[in-house]
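sry for the spam today, last one i promise. struct tokens for design, 180 residues
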């Protein structure tokens, strides 16, 4: 019976899993302050690159759209590496940060992060054949979830990191110009 459930989950979500690294990666040791600073800064950089793409995507020709969507998708997936470092400080510990735990719930448990990944993947796969109105609709669809749920959740991770680092800097996730 367990095999059937596992197989059903794999076949139901297999296409998503193939396009994305694991959403949960637990490390055997806690990250250092430098690890946390690096993860925060690199996550902010990746987020900014995806936001820049989403701000300009509607003005790109089909070849550039597909190429830049692929780059944005790679950056979006890379965000998971940086999230994993912060998860090992704020989520997967004996006394988790409740705000970050809730942000993780939005990103992972509710599947909102994967909606963005899937939207970018659709642009990579189909962008060359999409009409301008289809591209606009796809960007709008991505931005609805990303702007209202994903980016505020990333801000929560950044606030927790900033508080821990105590360096007087609190980063915010860069928003695309066309957030709804």
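last one done:
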């Amino acid at each position: 019976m367990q095999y059937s459930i596992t197989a059903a989950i794999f076949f139901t979500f297999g296409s998503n899993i193939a396009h994305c690294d694991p959403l949960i990666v637990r490390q055997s040791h806690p990250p250092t302050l430098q690890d946390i600073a690096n993860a925060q800064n690199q996550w902010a950089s990746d987020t900014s690159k995806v936001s820049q793409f989403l701000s300009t995507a509607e003005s790109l020709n089909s070849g550039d759209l597909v190429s830049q969507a692929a780059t944005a998708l790679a950056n979006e997936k890379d965000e998971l590496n940086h999230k994993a470092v912060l998860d090992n400080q704020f989520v997967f510990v004996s006394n988790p940060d409740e705000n970050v735990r809730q942000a993780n719930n939005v990103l992972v448990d509710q599947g909102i992060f994967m909606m963005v990944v899937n939207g970018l993947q659709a642009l990579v796969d189909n962008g060359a054949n999409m009409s301008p109105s289809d591209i606009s609709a796809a960007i709008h669809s991505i931005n609805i979830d990303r702007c209202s749920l994903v980016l505020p959740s990333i801000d929560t991770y950044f606030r927790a990191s900033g508080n821990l680092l105590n360096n007087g800097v609190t980063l915010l996730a860069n928003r695309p110009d066309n957030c709804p």
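The helical segments are 2-18, 33-56, 62-90, 98-109, 112-126, 132-165. ok im logging off now
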